[in-house]
UniProtKB/TrEMBL annotation:
Identification of the protein by name: Galactitol-specific PTS system IIA component
Stretches assigned to the PTS EIIA type-2 domain: 5-152
UniProt cross-references to InterPro entries, sorted A to Z: PTrfase/Anion_transptr (IPR016152), PTS_EIIA_type-2_dom (IPR002178), PTS_SugarTrans_NitroReg (IPR051541)
Pfam family of the protein (one): PTS_EIIA_2
Domain of life of the native organism: Bacteria
Amino acid sequence: MEYAELFREDLIQLNAVFRDRNELFETIYKKLLEKELVKNTFLKAVENREENYPTGLQFENLSIAIPHTDVKHIEQPFVYICTLEKPIPFIQMGTSDTLVEAEVILVLGIKEPKEQVGMLSRLMEIFSNKEFIKAFKNTDSESEILALFKKEMERTVE
């Protein structure tokens, strides 16, 4: 699978404002359902998975969350990118009580189970790159974000 192909400009939302994680999930779910990328079971599945397997990640200069769920809830593969005007607390991956104030949400919709682990590790690699973080924080349009991710995904494949 070419990970770069999962990124689309119409799946990038910048400077979003949500009251909480539930509103974030519901809003993104509606957009994904409208585009026929997820099944109607996706919202409940992603909420449940986040409760049981938190996805918050604290990097040196940025906090993110990578919510995702089982492949059976996905119609077409995608990555939805959402930057937040005001961070939303997520529990840190691998813990049950450490909070991460997520500034960026990447919702993964992967159709192949084995590809999900690869995509997660690729994203963790990318967000560990200080140059990428700097470029990402200085980017303020959907098209620039898309180009940045596509370039980075293609580069890290090599």
